[in-house]
Amino acid sequence: MSISSGKRLAKNTVFLYIRMIFMMLITLYSSRIVLKELGIIDFGLYNVIGGVVLLFSFLNGAMTAATQRFLSYELGKLIDSNVGAVFKACLHVHLVIALIIFVFGELIGLWMVNYLLKIPQGMFYAANIVFQFSLLTVVISVISIPYNALIVAFERMSVFSYISILDALLKLLAALILIFLSVNKLVYYAVMLFIFSLMIRFVYALYCKFFIVEIRSSNQYSKEFVWELTRFASWNLVGNLAVVAYTQGINILLNVLFGSPVNAARALALQVQTAIIGFSSSFQMAINPQITKTYSSGKLDEMHSLIFISSKLSFLLIFLLSFPILIETKFVLVLWLGQLPDYATEFCRIALLISIVEATSNPLIISAQATGNIKKYQLTVGGVLLLIIPISYAVAQITSLPISVFYVQCIVTILAQIIRLLFVRNMVSISLRKYFIKIVVRAIIFSVVVSIVPYCMTKFIEDGWERFIYTSLAFYFISFFSIYYIYLDKDEKTIIFNIIKQKILAKK
């Protein structure tokens, strides 16, 4: 990796972590307020209705990845770069997608809300109002995607961070307003989120219009770019359909089989999972454009280095944050929320385990997308992930246990990750042996070594603050030494020594 790329990566990562810390604290506090004010039933209902709306956003997910890839690829070109034309093409395509999502949402989504989901008696009117505003909120977010992707592609992470923090603060404001309302809290909450999402969309658009001059140079969009974009996205569609199906599909499946209180438990588990993943995704967001740019400029060795760095740090960050919560899940959730829906503890644990399994997936996904040749990749990986829903339904019917759905997801996720690695090996000529030794083997050994002592401590110390503090301190103390002696290889240790040496010499 070049010195300039390293400095830019470090700077962007700092901004994204500041963003992540603020957003995590704000979001977790907002969730506590929303759960308390809406109650478990309405909280679960809101999340399952949101799941129905997001079910139609698989088109958006496919185009988001395509937009980010094409903008980053275009910026990585040494000659003949035409960012303005690509952006215009992306914007027009997303407007069409927003219209499609709205139409399908009104035709199919309304039927699902009124005839498929288990809606509590007397809540159908509120559920329909919430659905309409949730659908409009998703439509607004779809139109915002090209602007978000443009800011990330230009690596303006400070701006992206500031706007994201503003978005989180507005959602906190919506939660706080609920305290002063006495009726129709669920409806007002959905309306407020729509209004605030509209405000954020205008902020993104205004920044891009006034501060990114490249998009002003082209008033016409290229039909060639539109075709390339839709062709790429059409295969990406399979993968995103799979992701939406097993995330939002599981939500709907749980509602149909077990009711909205179980949806509340899953929503809380996903918020914990999202907060943990956010620390890793902040680093990944900083490095993703560079992975694509190094491929487009033909620097495969540098690309491989970025893949290894991103994979290794992503796993380390997620594992270090997840493990203390994994062994003290109930204590942490009660401390955070006060009241817990049934299955919240179990759902949270398995969600964190899935996050650890998926920790190294993003660099492989970005690497595959960078090549543009994703037809076989998406059909295979997406096809495997789509199996989660039918298998989960069958297992849940047999066991009558909501948690069984997540065990299925975990097993299929491991299989999908193996398939991703095999594809990427051929697509970007990465060494499978090197990947296995540097990342997989070291991650497994590291995880086992640092987990033994804290886990044993939970068997001898009573649940509470004392146990949480002691197990966390023991875990991080052992991790500190294990990272150096087990997780890092010789080259990585040399890099760290050189960085420390440069810092010391700079102070003299």
Automatic annotation (TrEMBL):
Transmembrane segments: 12-31, 43-65, 86-113, 125-147, 159-181, 187-212, 306-327, 347-365, 377-395, 401-423, 435-455, 467-487
The species this protein was found in: Klebsiella spallanzanii
GO cellular component terms, A-Z: plasma membrane
Localisation: Cell membrane
Keyword Transferase: no
Topology relative to the membrane: Multi-pass membrane protein
UniProt-listed InterPro entries: Poly_Biosynth_Transport (IPR050833)
Identification of the protein by name: Flippase
PANTHER family registered for this protein in UniProt: PSMA PROTEIN, PST FAMILY PREDICTED COLANIC ACID TRANSPORTER
UniProt keyword terms in alphabetical order: Cell membrane, Membrane, Transmembrane, Transmembrane helix
Keyword Transmembrane appears in the UniProt entry: yes
